[in-house]
């Protein structure tokens, strides 16, 4: 029988870029290649073990799960072997050459942004998986046999742009990754070096990582198998025994995050069900969370057998940024993925986990406010979704919110509890105003009365706020109200004065109403102190900022008509009243009505409806003054 010639294939272009960087510019943290290969080997074993739950034949009577390291000093090779799921001809081409995993693009983008000095760090942060082998090897051979198949396949590459694939022989299922080490990397043939690296990065891998090491007994040197890792799943160890480094390494392994976690949450629940969990809060929003459709959730293990990753049923969507592991021996091993969704035990686990996460966030907020504020800037947007989706936890979520506010500086947020605490006696409600940014909001005419009274207002600058804050109609018995729709209540004496003023102004207001189309109403204002006019939403209308956002998303409809409010104390408005009383037919009144409306639009950061007409009116006004 003649052996067919190997096929030669080209790496996908993104992978070529990664390989080029790996072989040409990245020199530090080379040792992470071992972590990546061991993790792949462990995943491969998890996969075959899980698949064998339904198809025992895949095991081929080999359930002695082992990852093996072997060195050959003469050939200068280090081999990582596993008896996992293996790969066949097509999968090996796909996985080791043509599919760039989702993180690859992000990795390349980061590299482009970063200056050369920080580059070497990045490889360790991103972990480009299998390809990191080329940091230490000038040639890599992979021999693999897929579970259930009798044929093996041999993949080989020097990492320069092409790889070959050919049929091969292998005893039993699994994969050997053979690294032909570069001359200067012979270090990785040393037992002490490999032992140290396994301890440092891969100690918690649950399958034994075994290596034959030289043992001297009475001058005779023999080779003996040594298990290099303690194998104890991190989540099964007691809290006090786990070091920060171990947490960091484990978190990176399970999260694809390139930073250390912000906080670790240990959960050990006894009862029905009993389970253990290690949850991690990230520092930053992962790229794939940006768009809300990413699958997320902790990993689910049953007695250390990986069942689902991620398991969405373990946490609600508004906590989808939480990473981690849950191990529940009380669940039946043969539970199907569909069944998991409705399993009452999982619901109970979820409840418990949510409570723990909220508690951890609360503690962080109290103990380390600045760190919490940074966290909230990154992930608060996702957390807030819970206000509308989870009525039971609404109050607890509300306690975690941070807002910008009128009286505070831009960097520090305020909580609802702090806001309520600072409310003067005559203020009964919580006021907020939504808008683009702090600067525009702080000068909004609708806030003048609040400023005059010394009342604080929450500034809703997060684009999601108008969608989620209505999910919180009250907090601790205090109603949340939009400041542009609800002015502070006037004292009785002022109310009477305002009513009297309305009587005198009515004819002028009526004239404005007929001359200015598209408005819901024109009325006197109790909220203005300095400005002459402002535009407010009608009490029954949608939040105007929300309307703008929807319009931008292409979901807008015609904006709801608004209300123009006039400040009866303002000299310009007073002069208009006098003019109207002297001669209601004065043509300038109509022109000034338009100018006032345009003023209101400019003050809130909008454009006059017809800028040309606006300029013509201003010019006419200037001319009249100069004549
Ligand atoms: P990642 O492991 O992050 O997905 P890698 O580049 O390290 O990325 O590996 C790509 C894919 O190749 C893996 O997802 C897996 O499907 C396959 N693979 C790698 N190593 C092995 C192995 N030892 N056994 C089986 N499949 C493997």
Description:
The model has no long low-confidence stretch (mean pLDDT 87). This protein is an alpha+beta fold. It is built from 20 helices and 22 strands. It has 4 domains: 7-227, Heat Shock Protein 90; 234-372, Ribosomal Protein S5, domain 2, CATH 3.30.230; 403-482, Rossmann fold (3-Layer(aba) Sandwich), CATH 3.40.50.11260; 492-626, Four Helix Bundle (Hemerythrin (Met), subunit A). A 9-stranded mixed beta sheet has the order 1-6-5-4-7-3-2-8-9, covered by helices on one side. A 5-stranded mixed beta sheet has the order 10-11-14-12-13, with helices on both faces. Bound molecules: adenosine-5'-diphosphate.
Largest sheet: 9 strands, mixed
Global shape: elongated
CATH classification class of the largest domain: Alpha Beta
* Radius of gyration, CA atoms, in whole angstroms: 34 Å
| Name of the CATH homologous superfamily of the largest domain | Histidine kinase-like ATPase, C-terminal domain
What's the CATH topology name of the largest domain?
Heat Shock Protein 90
Write the layout of secondary structure elements.
Elements: E1 7-10, H1 13-24, H2 32-51, E2 67-72, E3 77-82, H3 89-98, H4 103-113, H5 119-126, E4 137-145, E5 152-157, E6 162-168, E7 174-181, H6 191-202, E8 209-217, E9 220-227, H7 244-255, E10 263-269, E11 275-281, E12 299-302, E13 305-308, E14 323-327, H8 337-342, H9 344-367, H10 369-389, H11 394-398, E15 404-405, H12 416-422, E16 430-434, H13 438-442, H14 448-453, E17 458-460, H15 465-468, E18 474-475, E19 478-482, H16 492-515, E20 519-524, E21 533-537, H17 544-552, E22 562-566, H18 571-582, H19 588-603, H20 611-626
Parallel strand pairs: 2-8, 12-14, 16-17, 16-19, 20-22
Antiparallel strand pairs: 1-6, 2-3, 3-7, 4-5, 4-7, 5-6, 8-9, 10-11, 11-14, 12-13, 15-17, 18-19, 21-22
Helix pairs in contact: 1-4, 2-6, 4-5, 9-10, 16-18
This protein binds adenosine-5'-diphosphate.
């Amino acid at each position: 029988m003649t052996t067919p010639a190997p096929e030669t294939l080209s790496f996908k272009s993104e992978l070529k870029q990664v390989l080029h960087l790996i072989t040409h510019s990245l020199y530090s943290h080379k040792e992470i290649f071992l972590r990546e290969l061991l993790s792949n080997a462990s995943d491969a074993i998890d996969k075959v073990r899980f698949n064998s739950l339904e198809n025992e034949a895949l095991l081929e009577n080999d359930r002695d799960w082992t990852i093996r390291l072997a060195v050959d000093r003469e050939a200068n090779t280090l081999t990582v072997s596993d008896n996992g799921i293996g790969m066949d001809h097509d999968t090996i081409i796909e996985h080791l050459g043509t599919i760039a995993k989702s993180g690859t693009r992000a990795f390349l983008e980061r590299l482009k942004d970063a200056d050369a000095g920080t580059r070497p760090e990045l490889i360790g942060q991103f972990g480009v998986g299998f390809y990191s082998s080329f940091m230490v090897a000038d040639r890599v051979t992979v021999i693999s046999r897929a579970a259930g198949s009798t044929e093996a396949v041999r993949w080989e590459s020097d990492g320069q742009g092409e790889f070959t694939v050919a049929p091969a022989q292998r005893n039993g299922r699994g994969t050997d990754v053979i690294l032909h080490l570069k001359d200067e990397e012979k270090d990785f043939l040393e037992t002490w070096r490999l032992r140290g690296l396994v301890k440092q990065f891969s100690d918690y891998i649950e399958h034994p990582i075994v290596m034959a090491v030289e043992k001297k007994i009475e001058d005779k040197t023999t080779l003996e198998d040594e298990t290099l890792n303690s194998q104890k799943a991190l989540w099964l160890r007691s809290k006090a025994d786990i070091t920060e480094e171990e947490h960091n390494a484990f978190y990176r392994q399970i999260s694809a995050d390139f930073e250390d976690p912000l906080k670790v949450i240990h959960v050990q629940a006894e009862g029905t069900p009993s389970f253990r969990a290690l949850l991690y809060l990230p520092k930053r929003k992962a790229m794939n969370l940006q768009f809300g459709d990413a699958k997320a959730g902790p990993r689910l293990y049953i007695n250390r057998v990986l069942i689902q990753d991620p398991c969405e049923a373990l946490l609600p969507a508004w906590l989808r940024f939480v990473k981690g592991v849950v191990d529940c021996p009380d669940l039946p091993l043969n539970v199907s993925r569909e069944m998991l969704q409705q399993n009452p035990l999982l619901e109970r686990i979820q409840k418990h986990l949510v409570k723990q996460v909220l508690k951890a966030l609360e503690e962080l907020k109290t103990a380390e406010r600045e760190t919490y504020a940074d966290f909230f800037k990154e992930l608060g947007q996702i957390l807030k979704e819970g206000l509308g989706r989870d009525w039971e936890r609404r109050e607890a979520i509300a306690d975690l919110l941070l807002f910008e506010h009128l009286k505070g500086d831009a960097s520090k947020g305020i909580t609802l509890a702090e806001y309520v605490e600072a409310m003067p006696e005559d203020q009964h409600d919580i006021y907020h105003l939504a808008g683009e940014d702090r600067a525009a909001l702080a000068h909004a005419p609708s806030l003048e009365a609040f400023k005059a009274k010394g009342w604080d207002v929450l500034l809703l600058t997060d684009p999601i706020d108008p969608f989620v804050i209505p999910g919180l109609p009250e907090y601790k018995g205090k109603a949340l109200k939009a400041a542009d729709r609800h002015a502070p209540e006037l004292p009785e004496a002022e109310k009477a004065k305002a009513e009297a003023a309305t009587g005198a102004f009515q004819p002028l207001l009526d004239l404005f109403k007929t001359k200015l189309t598209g408005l819901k109403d024109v009325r006197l204002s109790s909220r203005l102190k300095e400005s002459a006019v402002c535009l407010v939403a009608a009490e029954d209308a949608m939040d105007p900022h929300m309307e703008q956002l929807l319009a931008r998303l292409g979901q807008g409809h015609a904006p709801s008509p608004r209300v123009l409010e006039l400040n009866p104390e303002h000299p310009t408005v007073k002069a208009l009243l006098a003019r109207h009383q002297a001669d209601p037919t004065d043509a300038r009144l109509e022109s000034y009505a338009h100018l006032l409306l345009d003023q209101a639009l400019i003050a809130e950061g909008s454009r006059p409806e017809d800028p040309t007409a606006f300029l013509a009116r201003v010019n006419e006004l200037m001319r009249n003054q100069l004549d």
